[in-house]
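[09:14] KT: can someone run the structure on this one? pasting the chain below
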Amino acid sequence: MAKGPVNTTEEFVLRICRKSLLSLWCNCNPLGKNLWKELCDFLVVCDPHIIIVSVKDVQFQEHKERTAASERWNRKAIDESVKQIYGAERWLATAPHVIRSNGLPGLRLPEPEVRRIHRIAVAFGGKGEVPIKSGKFGKGYVHVMSESAFEHILTELDTITDLIGYLTAKEGSSPRLVLGGECNLLGCYLLNNKALPTDVDFLLVDETHWEGLRERDDYKRKKKADEVSYYWDRLIESYTGPNGELLDTPGLDFTEFEFALRTMAREDRFNRRILGGGLVEFLDAALGGALRARFMSSPSGVIYVPMLFKPTEDKERRCTLLAQRCAFARHGVGKGDIVIGIAFIENEIGVASVRELLHFDARNWTAGDDERAAQQKAALNYDSFTAMRKVDELEYPTED
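[09:31] RB: done, structure tokens below
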């Protein structure tokens, strides 16, 4: 059976992937047709996207003639990664689910007609001696990155939605020359309102873009404002074990539970800032007795309903009341296909822990559902213990 992450190169990439894209969706050394051979180094699955990552650590042979050393490094560090990525993609075309490194089935793969494949080759050991270029190698675009570029990109774009936005922009942009590494292309993308030119014959990206972006005051304010967003990340990770597996959730359907978590994970960093702030404010108010539930409408269109329960309220009651509040939230917002309920329990005075997640499918919501929700709200005097959070927020805040 294939090995787990044992070398420092894989550990480095795994740490970055799990921190940025979260553990449940990052599969290290997944298996393919042959259960004794790894499919690729990392496979990230977050419907409809699949990211295939191949990592090679090949040291540039500085003592050899430069052309020969460069050709060898490209062949070992890039060409072999590209071959592995294309091979993994062929197998995934007919696979129903991920096969984890221990041989057990993992997450279901998106249906072939909707899935979007993204390919990343991480090339270690070039020492800046060999130019690295992404592009189409015959069977689809491959993003080729050095170890430092990979770390910078996934640290900056540390949600699946933010990362996919950048990869998609690269795949569709014009021919370009990037000086000083890929981070400058990332800087160009962020400075250009998260877009790259598509209607020019040639694009020169100089060495000032990345450092110039990081020196801007509005960028520093953004980073400060984003700190609260990581409460959202920690909430998602609280359901995940040390090896990236979903923690035991007795009585819950794995697919629906994972779908709720995946919906939360698809929120980008800016949305998580709004949601994380709302969650912190809700818990402060709820633990102080000011309210019991709140609903938050994300810019993504998903509605979230955090609710606080006492330890004496059993699971059946929690799930029943949470489903009711999800229906009330959909009625109150007036639109939205998905509502996610989040149940907290006050185990100690002033301390709450998260328990159930509820995925409420509102795609077939009707006028009759609206009428029933309005009647139940009135009967329960709902508005006296629920509040809706409304915020005006800029991704790059202005000065106070």
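[09:33] KT: thanks! DSSP finds twelve helices and 15 strands in the chain.
[09:34] RB: yep, looked fine to me
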